Amino acid sequence: MSKKRITMTKKIAYVYLPLFLLMLFLLFPFYWTFVTSIKPENELYGPVVTYFPKHSTFTAYVKLFTQFDFSKSIINSFIVAFSTTIVSLIVSLLAAYSFSRYDFKGRKFLMIMFLTNNMFPTVLLLIPLYTIMRSLGILYTPLALVLAYTTFTIPFSIWLLNGYLNDLPQSLEEAALIDGANRFQAFIKIIFPILVPSLVATGVYIFMTSWNEYTFAVMFTNVDNRTIPVALKSLIGQLGVQWDLLTAGGIITIIPVCFMFFFAQKKLVEGLTAGAEKG
Amino acid sequence: MQRKKFNLAPYLLVSPALLIVVAVVFIPVAKAIMMSFQNYDLRRPSSIGFIGLENFTNIFHDPLFWDAFVRTLIWVGAGVGFQFLFGFILAILLNQDFKGRGVVRAVSLIPWCTPGVLIGLMWRWIYDGNYGVLNDILLKLHLIDEKIPFLAQQSTAFPSVIVTIIWQGIPFFALMLLAGLQGVSMELYEAADVDGASKIQKLFSITIPSIRNTIFVTLLLRIIWVANSVDLIFNMTEGGPAYSTQTLSIYIFNKGSVLNMGYASAMSLILTLLLSIVAIPYLMNKFKEEHR
What we know:
The complex is a heterodimer of chains A (279) and B (292). Chain A has 279 residues and is mostly helical.
């Protein structure tokens, strides 16, 4: 009995307490963001800080859509993130399949080259891309952002998908090939169905990074086609920050992507750590 | 994989990705290299021209560059270091058996899926000198006597942004390392228990060596991401006050924003070289690994 109590105390000290503190640190900012978004203005900038709103209101959410045309930014973000996801997934899957299933001259060189691309700083590409897109006349179009985002989504997706594909044994398709199917049929019938969860996870990750990206977006968009991160920043005006609107916009922004991410994260982490422990 | 006669298929499959990457990465990098040798200021397009190494010599004599350089080392060192430490602790905790583990695991990753802009702005509100909740908490705990304008004064701005980047990176480390921990064979621990090893001994002689490669990949990715991060600092302080939070990425971004592209390109090439020092061991390792 007393031994049980000691292990329980130990568990509280070594597991629950540190866990509680870490989670408090990680989650409090979100609680605070939400609370800020539903506080009326006089409470927000009042003399006392309230930890739970005395009066709650959703006017900030309404104002965001009626006065600031937030829905337009949501649509812009969706178009860019969705296009980036589709383009990146298709070309990366083809390349990853090639790396995983064929042996060819230059394979290693190309793989290392794609991997190296992951290392390039955003700011290195930002500046030349800006001048190139300006002279091509595609600056301030969704295409400019989609192209800019493929600079990091394609190398990253090839890396991930190659890991997933390498985990699938070659013998899977070989049986189909012996039965007279060609490589394409073998891929569609056998590999693709198994690969769907990995493709979804990769797609969610691409969508999320494109949805959240700011550095390219602030340089490559104008008022008409700005994405959510840029729109959020624009709520900081000359007269100070409209914190209620900003936090309301923030809450709306993170809900869809975090929801998707919850389901994809396990598979994603699997892909990121694939092969890491083989060496 | 048997080698047969020349097969075009693998090249065709790689070509779309390759074409895009050449267009959006290689041509721009070549352009950046060219611009770095030019006086390329878009505000004065008539004076654009080749100036040799002048940008680089100017950078060398630019005290703001050296400040930003040192600050980047601190930013990455302290930022990634503490992310790793707290992420590892969280991973070990999440690897224990307790009620509600699934829920805790799921919500703990929210910072990972939150846009950098929002993180920056959220924390800017928390740190606010007038209405900020952090000041209120510290006052109530009697840790401070008067409100601190965390992001508005030089002495506190940089530590404050570092705390924010640490906060952002904990979930990534926690989930990656947790995946590694779950792959460690229980038999190793059981054998150590028989030998009477302590928890700390087990951590350093079993856990860490077993997940060495995961630690390596995770650290590398994170170092590169943190070094490149612009959105977070930019939305908290824009590099100020008085440049006290200006890292290299922020300095380059600020130079690019005022359209001084030549100078910004030259600095971004230097940043790339610095990052490649970190990345090359990893790439060499991968290169060897590909000898399957």
